[in-house]
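step 3/5: co-fold with zinc ion
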Amino acid sequence: MTDHEAGLKLAARWIADSARPLVFTGAGLSTESGIPDFRSPGGIWEKYNPEDFYFDRFLASEGAREKYWQMATEMYEVMRGAQPNRAHLALARLERIGRLDCLITQNIDGLHQKAGTSEEKIIELHGTAVYVACLDCRRRFDRDLIQERIKGGVKVPYCDGCGGPLKPATISFGQAMPERELAEACRRSSRCDLFLVVGSSLVVYPAASLPSLAKGGGAKLAIINREPTPFDETADLVIRAEAGDALTGIVNLIAAMVP
Ligand code: NAD
Ligand code: ZN
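step 4/5: write tokens
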């Protein structure tokens, strides 16, 4: 057996034996669906400067809002057409075979839901791109409706009700995290017994503090990622692999283990 196979087998065993398996996903889960992540070569940050997308800049100037909507529109066009890949499908299967307690995602693309993971299992830590919200009155708008306006020449959309600035319901750098989701993610992480990271660089906080909470609560920490992360040292298992391959392998093994 290779180290890689042994790693998959160990992860499968731990998930099969876990009372509360928690999976934590990042942008790396969706690259196989054609959505670029932020930090890989060819990722979003090779094309745009992250500093242009801080929340206070968005609030402060029309120019920043215009830049933001340009980047967000480009990403959304890719997301709208994207289909769940083998990694999303394996996680949906994990729930069907009764081995998923909670799925915390940093992704905003809605692909876990599209793959069939139940809404009540998912915590979207960084919001979602599927709708747009007014920053002043909180009114929600369907994303496709707003994209139509942008295609029609509007550069920065404003609220029909109060005239406030509209923004996709995603969390930008420097923007407050959704309170309920963050609290729930912390609670679930502290009480899980297995915390499996898939496709995250684990450098974006506070999301990246969740593995430490899990470890602090006595959980095992396993990481599946293409590249090293700052948590590899503390992890109980690191699988350096493509998410789709690794998760498909692991879930096949679990399906053969659990009755
Ligand atoms: P990140 O871009 O910082 O890191 C992604 C990690 O996944 C990298 O370490 C990379 O090596 C790894 N990776 C990429 N493809 C992989 C694959 N096929 N298999 C295994 N590993 C793979 O992403 P992050 O940690 O999620 O944090 C960035 C922020 O970006 C998050 O807040 C998220 O909201 C946002 N984001 C979301 C999407 C999306 O919704 N699909 C896309 C881009 C960015
Ligand atoms: Zn409004």
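step 5/5: annotate
The longest helix spans residues 62-81.
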